Amino acid sequence: MKFFIDTADLAEIRDLAATGLVDGVTTNPSLVAKTGRQFLDVVREICAVVPGPVSAEVTATDTATMLAEGRKLAKIAKNVTVKVPLTPDGLKACKVLSSEGTMVNVTLCFSSAQAILAAKAGASFISPFVGRLDDIGQSGMELIREIVEIYRNYPHFKTEVLVASIRSPMHVTEAARMGAHVGTLPPAVLRQMFAHPLTEKGLATFLADWKKTGQSILADGEKVAAE
Ligand code: E4P
């Protein structure tokens, strides 16, 4: 399963990219607005930090303007993935941009019917929003199960299921069990995934016992190379 991080915050992206676990980044207009920075600069900088797909969303609602925006975004860097909303105009733009060799992420997917349309439009990624479905009392994970099952029935669909609106590590593990290709994780959720109280407790015990031996693996003055 690939991990994208769902943020436009460069400091967070640099910090988490250093783990070696980040395969891509997703942004959206709300995340960009939070940074208070110029969108195009932010996209350029993220693309330089993370070599994998970086989703940058168009803000037009008609196909012609979406195409103009998408082409401009795609010129920023090879790894830009143009994000379009799941609307008739968005899917028309998806089809054209995909045929030009640009990766497209179709966002705001809330049904498996919509996911079928995105695959037929040649999307590289479909983004079903699990948390927002849970919020209205529907099962976000059930939607992931349906889309993964449907796409498996049609091996010529090349669209990857990118689980979005993730709220907890459980969303990530359930999506992985279902075989979703990608999860886009808020930074806090990725950090939560490292944590387990027994890991911390066990490590404290090991270190305390090691201290009693009076030994050290590295001799005095032995160099520690920079990461
Ligand atoms: C996905 O690409 C979206 O940016 C994101 O996952 C939306 O998540 P939210 O529902 O937490 O805003």
Write the layout of secondary structure elements.
Layout lengths: L1 E5 L3 H8 L6 E3 L2 H7 L3 H11 L4 E4 L5 H14 L3 E6 L2 H12 L3 E7 L2 H9 L4 E4 L1 H6 L4 H14 L6 E4 L5 H10 L3 E4 L1 H8 L2 H17 L14
Parallel strand pairs: 1-2, 1-8, 2-3, 3-4, 4-5, 5-6, 6-7, 7-8
Helix pairs in contact: 1-3, 4-5, 6-8, 8-9
Contiguous helical run count: 11
Q: What are the segments in which pLDDT stays under 50 over at least 5 consecutive residues?
A: none
Strand residue content: 15-25%
Class by helix and strand content? alpha/beta
Q: Please, what is the average pLDDT?
A: 97
The oligomeric status of these chains comes to single chain
Radius of gyration: 20 Å
Encode the helix/strand succession as letters: EHEHHEHEHEHEHHEHEHH
Give the CATH class.
Alpha Beta
Ligand roster? erythose-4-phosphate
CATH fold topology: TIM Barrel
- Largest pleated sheet: 8 strands, parallel, barrel
Keywords:
binds erythose-4-phosphate, 11 helices, 51% helix, 227 residues, TIM Barrel, alpha/beta, eight-stranded parallel beta barrel, 8 strands
